[in-house]
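Ticket reopened. Same input as before:
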Amino acid sequence: MGVGRRMKKQGPPPDLGKSSASKRNAAEFDESKRGKKRKASGEIKLQPIAGKSSIKSTNSGLRHSTKGTFTNGKPTQAQKGRHLAKEPIMSGALQDVSSDDDAADLLGGDVIDDDDNNDEGSPLDIDNGLAGSTNGDGLFAQDEFLESGSSVYDSDPQQEKGRFSEDEDESDAEEKLTAANIAGLSRKLDLEQEEDAAEAQLELEEAALQTNIDGDRPKVLDDEFEDEGVGSRLAPDLQVLRSRLTDTIRVLDDFSKLAEVGRSRVEYTGQLLKDICLYYGYSPYLAEKLFNLFPPREAFAFFEANESARPIVIRTNTLRTHRRELAQSLINRGVTLEPVGKWSKVGLQVFESQVPLGATPEYLAGHYILQAASSFLPVMALAPQEHERVLDMAAAPGGKTTHIAALMKNTGSIFANDSNKSRAKGLIGNIHRLGVKNAIVCNYDAKEFPRVIGGFDRVLLDAPCSGTGVIAKDPSVKTNKTEKDFMQLPHLQKQLLLCAIDSADHTSKTGGYIVYSTCSVTVEENEQVVQYALTKRPNVKLVETGLTFGVDGFVSYMGKQFDSKMKMTKRFYPHAYNVDGFFVSKFRKVAPSPEAKARGGDPDTASNREDVVMVDRTPITTEDEKEEGAFGGFDESEDEKYIEKAKRNRLRRNGINPRAVNWKKPTAGQARSGGAAQPNGVDVQAGSRPIVRAASTTVIQNLT
Ligand SMILES: C[S@@+](CC[C@H](N)C(=O)[O-])C[C@H]1O[C@@H](n2cnc3c(N)ncnc32)[C@H](O)[C@@H]1O
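Engineering reply: fixed in the latest deploy. New output:
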């Protein structure tokens, strides 16, 4: 299972009719070229000599894995046909099958994951930017990687073009598949074949296990069964348990026909939930919460998908290189990879690697970042434009910040904030490694925005969450999330989302957008948070995310009705797209935020948001306008307020929120001479922590 999911494409499932047709065409096309390719590529022939399939039990459930070994020899006709019918992948290596457990090796000991995580300081988010040894400017000469002479791409330029899109160099499309590529291709396809065989075998065994079927109606609620495992201290028989799981789902799928007489749906569902807890190792609370998101069969697929790792993906850093060049360099180092899917121009899915991906020269030079494919989505939805001002409210370790910077081509500015100081240091590491020059790193509780600074063209809130979308990565979520978490986290998320909205500039000529995302699939952390924001901030509306795949957000859920536009929000599931579970929503701010009702008795804001002050939306006047306003003589007391206003305007023009400034009380002399309060030195205060305003492009607050 692990190998299979790692091999599977990420993104929208292909249209079956179309894809099989196109595969056939590709096969026919390739068949005519095959002899030629062989000659050109040095005639490496590969054949699996043994295909092993095994079914093993683990604490968390059954998994099956496939393994294949290869030797030189002629492929059989059947193998040929199969190989040719599949898309090629790129490889520079022939090595043993990677399994889920190989991920750490692949990443190079330090498991690097710039992805989202729930808990601060979680060991899962430790892409702390090995600011390792680059060659001076951090870039390696491309020649260094191109000279090997092992060209790597399919000789079919059309196919190549389709797979490497706009950001690619056209001339490279001429390159041929190498012997190494054929080897990688062969291995991939054999693995898939073996996986299919193992799956078929598993199904057969499951069918054979269904001995408890009485006629057409499985006896899943047998008393004997009920006592087994759940109540008893004996280790459950996982095969029997799995068999009962599938039987119960069958019954729930076709209840009137398959349910035992006198048994209710509730009884079957209760049994199924118990079995899910036992088989996959979830707490009853979380199992039920996740189960309720789907019809029973789909829930089963979701729980199954959480048992296998998602593919390893790297994002090309287009500030430093192009995807094609990066692919070529890595292939030359023995990495087998292919583009992540048509939906991304920068992602590469890695199948296997002879080198640790977190320590290659290309990694250290910032040519790529290890990043889950689903983490691309919020940034794609945000769609930052060049020269804009962007706020990334919860930014560490910086996977999305650096992606934003790349899309903005290092222009404009990004305020990359995270409340966790040590994670913010990792963020700085990544910013440096990837050559980001337009980011300002800060270390505030994001609830302090927009008091710290506001008026952004776009705001990303990739919120801290429970991580129910990344259980495959962090199985501890199965048991360590409690009801309390699902009250506290949404509460925080709601507060942060209001602050995100208040930090956006509705008058922005290019933007005024806010993206809210989580790596969780629960409704409490997603649709309910969005609904709350829509209610509290009538000055925003939901807009399309622009993402080409994803399941629509819930418009109603367990008796709750949400805004009809909620379907514009998008959900991503591991079982549907082979990506981490994710939620992405996009708002457009259409009017100024209402005055803060901080002390107005709102139960969700009264105690916690009284420190949030709305952005001062007083129009920023020009110098000329100020001059005009100066006509008509001076009245000391009246002028003071204009002078103060002018000073506030000046601060705002410099990107500083005047409300966050510590004003010195004017001395009596200053007051008499029309002088007003002055900002307290160069520091801008937010709470008690200063922002250091440095001359360099990256400004670091309080992080040493
Ligand atoms: C999902 S992770 C962000 C991942 C990041 N966007 C990326 O792509 O690399 C959530 C982050 O929120 C931060 N966080 C939690 N509470 C916060 C708060 N009140 N203010 C700001 N950041 C917070 C955590 O430290 C964590 O780094």
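Residues 114, 116-117, 120, 375, 393-400, 417-420, 423, 445-447, 462, 464 surround S-adenosylmethionine (CB under 6 Å). DSSP finds 25 helices and 23 strands in the chain. Please confirm and we'll close it.
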